[in-house]
Amino acid sequence: MNLARDTGLAAERAPQDARSASPGTASALYTGWVRHRRHAPHRHAFRYRLFLAYLDLSEIDRVFSRRWLWSVGRRNVVEFRRSDYLGDPAVPLDTAVRDCVEQRGLARPLGPIRLLAHLRYFGYCFNPVSFYYCFAEDGHTLQAVVAEVTNTPWKERYAYVLSASACTRQGDVLAWRFDKRLHVSPFMAMTHSYAWRLGIPGEELRVHMDVLALDAPIHDASREFDATMVLKRKPLDARNAASALLRFPLMTLRVVAAIHWQALRLWLRGNPIHDHPATRIQKP
After folding, report:
1. What is the pLDDT of residue 10?
2. Alpha carbons 47 and 229: distance in angstroms, whole number
């Protein structure tokens, strides 16, 4: 399989993160689009534009300083709130990510931890998936990716820990196949596996996910659902930050509104509903 050809994830040289971030930092903004396509039982597709923050967790105080609309742990137009992300809010986020990787049996990452996610905008935050890129001490060699999935309306979280040494790789496109562990959508049963393909963050960043039956091969005919995200990197400077807020002033509210609007459309089209596993257990 040609991963770059089959998924549109172009293989690039390993990125030098600081090149397109604010001067002297690895943090940046990514803007682009995400597309969802359901292939069965009834076809349905949608696409919308978005932006995400890419934050080196060691740079958060520096990135948020001297921005009067941005703050850390304090209400503002843009806020980084520790409790919106992985693990115990009393534990520093980078420590929680390193602990999570180590607890899943992988070597503890010793280099930068860089988060690709939504921040809290106008007091609201929701991340369908938060990606934590865990680098080695050299700052460029990727050791692992932690993909923290959050469902709605339950707001449950599950962290998939993906080892960079246990994947299919072509250039800077990394691919994994693993079983689904969290009930995400009432229109998708738990008896599925994921095939994910992630690019290493650079000037472009592409992510692709296929949802398949547990033992199905990875090809177009076996996909029940797929999602693709294509992003371009921009420096995290005052101009780009203001532009993103003006273009997407209620980004996280728009994400949740889109999820519920598309769920209504799926229901109206007659797609079957699958109960949350906990609900099934409670039924007599």
Report:
1. 41
2. 10
Tokens standing for residue 48 = 């919308």
> Token pair 């769920």 is at which residue?
263
Instruction: Please write down the HEC assignment for all residues of the chain.
Output: CCHHHHHCCCCCCCCCHHHHCCCCCCCEEEEEEEEEEECCCCCEEEEEEEEEEEEEHHHHHHHHCCCCCEEECCCCCEEECHHHCCCCCCCCHHHHHHHHHHHCCCCCCCCCEEEEECCEECCECCCCEEEEEEECCCCCCEEEEEEEEECCCCCCEEEEEEECCCCEEECCEEEEEEECCCCCCCCCCCCEEEEEEEECCCCEEEEEEEEEECCCCCCHHHEEEEEEEEEEEEECCHHHHHHHHHHCCCHHHHHHHHHHHHHHHHHHCCCCCCCCHHHHHHCC
Per-residue pLDDT of 1-23, as tens digits, reads 444 444 445 433 334 443 344 55
Cα-based distances in Å from 64 to 56, 70, 171, 225:
12, 6, 33, 37
